[in-house]
Each structure stands twice: as structure tokens, then as C-alpha cells.
Design a protein that fits this description.
alpha+beta; ten-stranded antiparallel sheet
């Protein structure tokens, strides 16, 4: 999409928390200008057909929409457009696991085999539930092997698996790891994972347009993703897809989830306590701390540090894991974030709980992670500077 066409397609859609539109005009314009400055160049550089960007600041929520959800029909991105959020789904799964922990039915220190007897007598007698949640089981791969396609083959894969590192000493990013964690959480609550997700997270947080399987009633709102060759694509089903990368959602809903994370410290519900558990760093992995699903850096932070924390080395190569002493609550000065990708979609969510600011970027093309991080970082810095000049100067 060239610059001229992009300008023609760009549109803005707003979602904010209960105030009259007239009273929001100044804030909307200010935030919109900040988002435009970061997102328009990103879309041109990445040849991105469509995107939705959510921002929360000072308790208010805004969603800005750009481009098209479907190049064939020309259907524009709106606040109702549903994107695949890829591995941002892992933060939803981790929240459910933490919820099971708060309910007293899942212990992170227990061996994984306790909750899935089919794995008794295997390496999973020594791999803790926490190791699965933090990718520190000892070398589970990024994906299941291509020949593993059924439940029985999956169990056989886990039974035959041998770690190449002692559990709890090395992080290797892995869908089979977080997928099994989500599966065990569902087992511990005696409920299928999809049902657990719907009842105890999506519905509980009012995420009405977030799905594992997009229903027919919403299929018209489901964007098409695009490959590097600009071919239409949507994610295919796979083992533990729901747990690892299968959530589809709108920017407004993901932003609402982010805001629930920001506001969790103000609540006393079981779900709020579970959310706070996901913000606690469990292992130091180079420049970042691995939480449950979320990845954490100290804040203020430099762009270089945030890029390093989200680098391809962190995703594709084993990293030394240093246990962090347990704490009851998260640290105060942190930035929490997570990237997500499918073959046709890209996602990134980042927020600073103490400053009550957050940003969500969803797009229907899998463009490079550094570009997402740079755009989100620019938005967070500019919003922070605009709302608190003193803090803005120290970053």
C-alpha cells in the first residue's frame, strides 16, 4: 500500500470509557496524533493492509483503525474487526493457570504428571507446572513435530521426550510447553480449556468479541491475514492451538484485557489476584524477566533493552534461566509486554501498571517484531511525556 492509498484508507474509530464524546475531543485528538505519528510509517514500511491500535491512558480507552480488513472486498478495519493475536494468547492461558492456582487446585511446584497421569513415569515427574508456564522445562521445542497431529501422538511425544537441560535452568520458548500448562490448568478445574477460557476469563472481563473459534455471527468481522506474498490466510487448527496462539479478538477487547491487568492491583477478586500473579518475574532471562505468559523489563527502560528482550534470539535459542526469589506482589517499576504472530497476523501488547498506560497493536500481516516494539515504545513515551512531563524527561 503506497502512501497516497494509505492516506485514503486510514480511518479512526474510538472506544472510551463512558464519557460524552464532546468532552473527549481534546484528549482523543492528542492521543490520535501520537498514534498516527508512530503507526502510519510502520504500516507503509511493512506494507500492512490493516491495523487497529488501542491505547489506555489515565483510565480512558481509545482505539484507532487503519486500512482494510480484506483487500479483496475493500472492507475497512473498524472497532469490530477481529484479528488473530497469536502468542499474546499465552497471556490469557497464563491468567487461567494463575486463576486455578488462586483457587487452590493447581500448584506451580507440583510435578506436571500429577495432573495428567498419562505422563507418570516420564520426565514430567521432574518437570514442575511452573517450568511449563515459563518455558524452562529443559528443552521442549518451539512446535510439535509435523508428524504429531493427534491426541494419542501428542501423549506419545511427551512420554518419549528427554530434556537437554535440567528443568528450571534454561528457557526455550515453546508452544508445547505453555500448551501443556493450559491443558493441566483445565484438568485441575475439571473443565475443557475452551469452556474455562470463556467462563472464567473472557466473560468475566466483558470481552464479548474475543473467541477461540469465531462464531458464524461474527465471521464478517474476522479480518483476512496476508502472507509476505500478499496471499489471504487464516490460522489452521493444531494441537494446543487454543492454549498457545488461538485467541482471535478486537483491539478494544485486548485493550480491555490490558486495562484489567493495569487495574488488577486495585481489586481483591480471585481473578485480580490471578492477574497479579502473572506479573511476577519467575526467572531472569538476559534483559527480561519471564513471568507467567508476560515478559517483564524494569521501567524506565531504553528502546535497545526492550528490543533485546523481544529479539529473535530470545524466541529461537535457549537462554540461561536464573531463578528470581519469590515475591508476593509484582515490582512497582516495570513494563510488561508480549508479542504474538500467526502466518498472516501480528500483535503486540505493552503496558506500565504504575503509570496506567498501555498500548495494543494488531495487524493483518506478520511484520517484523522490532517495528511493533518501536511503534509501541514511541506511543508509550509520548503519552507519558504528555501526561507527566517530569516522568517523560527521565526516560
Amino acid at each position: 500500500m503506497n502512501r497516497r492509498n494509505f492516506a485514503l484508507f486510514a480511518a479512526v474509530c474510538l472506544s472510551f470509557s463512558g464519557r460524552a464524546q464532546a468532552a473527549e475531543t481534546d484528549d482523543r485528538t492528542r492521543v490520535g496524533n501520537i498514534v498516527d505519528a508512530a503507526v502510519r510509517p510502520m504500516m507503509v514500511e511493512g506494507d500492512i493492509p490493516g491495523a487497529a491500535v488501542g491505547v489506555t491512558v489515565g483510565g480512558k480507552e481509545y482505539v484507532f483503525c487503519y486500512g482494510v480488513a480484506d483487500k479483496k472486498s475493500g472492507r475497512k478495519v473498524t472497532s469490530d474487526t477481529i484479528f488473530e493475536i497469536g502468542s499474546v494468547s499465552k497471556t490469557f492461558t497464563a491468567t487461567l493457570g494463575a486463576y486455578a492456582q488462586v483457587q487452590g487446585v493447581l500448584s506451580p511446584s507440583d510435578p506436571a504428571s500429577k495432573y495428567l497421569p498419562a505422563l507418570s513415569g516420564t520426565e514430567f515427574d521432574r518437570v514442575r507446572v511452573l517450568d511449563l508456564a515459563t518455558f524452562t522445562a529443559g528443552g521442549l521445542p518451539l512446535q510439535f513435530p509435523d508428524e504429531v497431529t493427534t491426541h494419542d501422538q501428542m501423549i506419545a511425544f511427551y512420554r518419549a521426550w528427554k530434556p537437554d537441560q535440567r528443568p528450571g535452568t534454561s528457557r526455550r520458548y515453546s508452544n508445547p510447553s505453555i500448551g501443556l500448562y493450559g491443558h493441566l490448568a483445565a484438568k485441575s478445574m475439571a473443565m475443557p480449556f475452551d469452556e474455562l477460557m470463556q467462563k472464567h476469563l473472557l466473560s468475566a472481563l466483558g470481552l464479548k468479541y474475543s473467541f477461540i473459534t469465531v462464531p458464524n455471527s461474527q465471521i464478517e468481522n474476522y479480518a483476512f491475514g496476508y502472507t509476505k506474498e500478499n496471499k489471504r490466510i487464516r490460522v489452521a487448527p493444531g494441537l494446543f492451538d487454543a492454549e498457545a496462539y488461538g485467541v482471535k479478538s478486537t483491539a478494544a477487547d485486548v485493550l480491555r484485557f490490558v486495562k484489567a491487568n493495569i487495574d488488577a492491583g486495585d481489586g481483591e477478586s480471585a481473578l485480580h489476584r490471578a492477574i497479579l500473579q502473572t506479573h511476577i518475574g519467575r526467572f531472569q532471562i538476559g534483559p527480561m524477566a519471564q513471568g507467567l505468559g508476560w515478559e517483564i523489563v524494569r521501567y524506565p527502560t531504553s528502546l535497545d533493552t526492550l528490543l533485546a528482550a523481544n529479539s529473535s534470539e530470545m524466541a529461537f535459542t535457549p537462554q540461561k534461566a536464573i531463578p528470581i526469589a519469590p515475591t508476593a506482589r509484582p515490582l512497582d517499576d516495570i513494563l510488561i509486554n508480549k508479542t504474538g504472530s500467526t502466518n498472516g497476523f501480528a500483535a503486540y501488547a505493552a503496558f506500565v501498571p504504575k503509570e496506567k498506560v498501555g498500548v495494543v497493536i494488531l495487524a493483518n500481516k506478520n511484520f517484523p517484531i522490532p517495528a511493533r516494539v518501536k511503534a509501541a515504545y514511541a506511543i508509550l513515551r509520548a503519552i507519558g511525556a504528555a501526561t507527566s512531563p517530569t516522568k517523560g524527561q527521565r526516560r
